[in-house]
Design goal:
Strand order of the largest sheet: 1-2-3
Distance between the termini: 59 Å
Order of helices and strands: HHHHHHHHHEEE
Helix content: 40-55%
Number of strands: 3
Radius of gyration: 23 Å
Oligomer: single chain
């Protein structure tokens, strides 16, 4: 597209780069809309929707967001927020970071004062060395003689999360009330993240 050709020229010829208009009054959200508008002709609706979502997550995380906030420490806090509070999947976090980097790189073309920390931001999905519990280890864990009832309860929640693949936050919020059981072989829980109910089948051990 013409916008992309101009971007390439701006990188090759500094005088064109210096001549690029500088939208100093545009904030992150407004500039991101410009970015989508200038690239929308060659990108899918799905990409544009994800770009909007990434911008929205930044503004939820930091409502008074400014260009100078895109430092490495702030990126790390944002990533931790998405992973721990929002409980987002690794691939979703990687996609949001990719969209953010694209916007910041384009902002540099427009000579906006953007910290270049985004070039050093990396996020790895599930680590290949992540540890897994064997069935024997889980059996020994389940039989451990905890002295504190709270420790026993937290341990049981963790083991049930392993056996059902539910998020810890879903088990945590169920502590105050009973589960909806179906014949002892399944139960239903309202997921905290998606706000939708899910029915979980129980294995013989989990039951």
């Amino acid at each position: 597209t013409e916008a992309m050709r101009e971007e390439v020229k701006a990188r090759r010829w500094p005088e064109r780069y210096r001549a690029k208009p500088k939208p100093e009054t545009e904030g992150f959200e407004t500039f991101a809309a410009r970015f989508r508008a200038e690239h929308g002709g060659r990108l899918s609706r799905s990409w544009q929707g994800q770009n909007v979502a990434a911008v929205g997550k930044w503004l939820e995380f930091k409502p008074d967001l400014s260009w100078r906030d895109f430092t490495l420490p702030e990126f790390n806090r944002f990533i931790n927020h998405l992973a721990d509070v929002e409980e987002m999947a690794d691939n979703t976090i990687k996609a949001y970071l990719s969209h953010t980097k694209g916007i910041l790189e384009y902002a540099e073309v427009y000579r906006l004062e953007v910290p270049r920390d985004y070039l050093r931001v990396k996020y790895s999905a599930m680590a290949p060395e992540r540890l897994w519990l064997t069935a024997d280890e889980m059996e020994r864990w389940a039989g451990y003689p905890f002295e504190d009832a709270a420790d026993r309860r937290d341990s049981d929640r963790f083991l049930m999360a392993c056996l059902t693949a539910l998020r810890y936050s879903d088990w945590h919020q169920m502590a105050a009330g009973p589960m909806e059981l179906f014949g002892g072989q399944a139960f239903r829980v309202m997921q905290k993240k998606t706000k939708t109910p899910v029915t979980v089948a129980l294995s013989a051990w989990a039951e």
